[in-house]
Every structure is written in structure tokens, then in C-alpha cells.
Design a protein that fits this description.
4 helices, 0% strand, single chain, mainly alpha
Amino acid sequence: MASPLSIDLLIGGNVIASAFVFSLFGLSLAQAYIYWLNSSRDRFYLKATVWTVMLLETVHTIAVVHFMYHYTVTSFGKVLMLAFISWYDLLDKFAFDTYSCEILSALSGVQ
């Protein structure tokens, strides 16, 4: 049985979620590449929206990598470090979860 401060319970779900994030990023990257090959007739605003989404996805994936590296490599064996929230955790929770839909709707002109 795992203790209350077990690394398995505290960070295990994040490792699985990170693998899911990387898979979705790869799919998004493939879709953006296919779009780039076939988007010669699209308007600038649509192209800008697609590339803005890809930029946000890339920044999000970098934040996830940094989060996982910090908590699994830099803070390895320091269970109490999991109690502290760093700036990139707040960035990930706040900027991408809360405002990404608002940014995309503003870019696409949908109110």
C-alpha cells in the first residue's frame, strides 16, 4: 500500500497525462502540416488562426515538458517540493485552460 506522500500517487497521473499531451501535439502538428500544404486559397485570418493555435500548442507542450522535468528530475526524491506551485504551473492552468478559447474566438471573429 502506498503512503500518503507517495510519488506514484502525486505525480503518476501527470506522467500519463504528459504522454497524452505529446500524442495530441503530434497529431496537431501533422494536421497543421497537411493544412499548410493545402491552404493556398484560404484567407489570411484563417491561416493566422491555425498558426496561432499551433504556437499556443507548442508553448503548452514546452510548459508540460518543463513541469515534468522539474518535478521528476530536478526535484527527484524531494516529495515536499510537490507542495510548491511554480510560475509555469500557473501559466499552464491559467493561460491555456482559461483564456485559449477566448483568444481563439477573438482571432476568428466569432463572438
